[in-house]
Give the backbone structure.
Amino acid sequence: MNISVKDWYKSGSPWIWLNAGAVALCVIMVVGLLGLIAVKGLGHFWPSTLYVTEYQNRSGDQKTILGEIADSELVSATQLKSAGYQVPADIEYIERDLLKVGNRDVSGQDFLWVLSTSISKQTAPENLIAVERREWGNFYGNLVSVKEGDKVVASVANGGFESTWAALQERIERALAIQEEIHGIEKGDIGSINYGLERLRLKERGLELQGDSDPIKLQSIAEERAGLNAEYEVLKDQLNGLYSQVQRDQLLAKTIDGNEVSMSLSKVVLAYAPNDMGFFDKISHYIGKLGEFLLDDPREANTEGGIFPAIFGTVMMVLLMSIMVTPFGVIAAVYLREYAKQGAVTQVIRIAVNNLAGVPSIVYGVFGLGFFIYFLGGNIDQLFYPEALPAPTFGTPGLLWASLTLAILTVPVVIVATEEGLSRIPRSVREGSLALGATKFETLWRVVLPMSSPAIMTGVILAIARAAGEVAPLMLVGVVKLAPSLPLDWNYPFIHLDRKFMHLGFHIYDVGFQSPNVEAARPLVYATAFLLVLVIAVLNLAAVGIRNGLREKYKSLEH
């Protein structure tokens, strides 16, 4: 059967194919973008080969550097000529490599651009080492010796590279174990003692404000404080002993230009020899670095280490926001659909709700700062925390106000989705419930809301998708560059809603635009962005799973 072009056009098939093509193009673009972010970010953790590069700089001097190739790009000859390079007239573009040379404490810079045409020789010799440090970035060079105090316990000159390298790894593991013990005491035990001392101070201040000078109460506070101070002195002595132990060992290494550098192993995170590593060694190294990125705290102005506090803060804020926004949105939608008289006023309210969804997010941040923090939080401090004043408790940006601000920002989405779900419930279902003797509230609670729960979850999913990536309002109501403590710990009341927190979106902004070392931060921007997408996807998939379960549960009631 032959169909004319005119009939085919009238059938609507062209529009179907056009929509399908547009959807396919969007999917390809999204997958391509995520793939680019993943490659740029996750590739950063793979141990790169170290190259000894001999090249000629723009002044014509011969230089030798050691480093890994971090990036490559084509540069126009015009741009190079304006920068002072000598470029042949017949060349339009030249490739240049970005070498991560490390050793910022020695040379003052740890990245260097080198033109491919200026390189005379590039080799990858064995026994070159890379040392990841807690300060000053990476060190690249040759291993010389390992020292215990002033005594050399292993050296390449006497025992060879392998034995010296084994001694170094053994002592790094020892130093890391001591560092972990120090961290546990400082953040755990001493942190709890400081928290307890602060609570006692506030309790004593509260008695003073109440005019209560009961000697029994004051004596009890003094005894508790003395006990905590005694515990602190014991821990302080223990810390001093651990610090003297961790600073015992040192590493002596040599840069490519012959400078010797001594490093305390207390400042070393990891040492590896990438040119000597096999494939499975590199896989193991990659997994370890990826685990560090996910589970450790950041360091070096957020350009090194991990992002666990940002992951934790993002997830906790989104969960709190979801708990807050769902009842508000559902109650508002139920009132507008089930109880409010349908008329001009109701229509105006719906228009206002729809318009709220289009308000710039920074406006919500200003509202949260003014109303939640300054007004509501300030009054809460006056009523319930006068002993802490003038230091604010809730009258300062924190997790609670950030979650509430994002709840207000996303509540229009939940209202609209819930109303749409309520409107799909057949009127006969309501009438049947009422006919069986149920009240209007019982009908709403036991029949209508359960049947509309998939639509409610749809609204929550959309709210999560928007709130998890918001940054602008959070900069005003609680997010910070580096949070010293997580909002959740073992100190009463365990969940500290007044604390500031880290967020993946703000972390991307901070590392990408506020970092003092742009080249070092760039891979982490990609990696954090990819992780943020994954976190949002996981949260959404969890909500979708709940929605699908509810849809299956109440499917029979829809027929």
Observations:
- The CA atoms of residues 152 and 406 lie 59 Å apart.
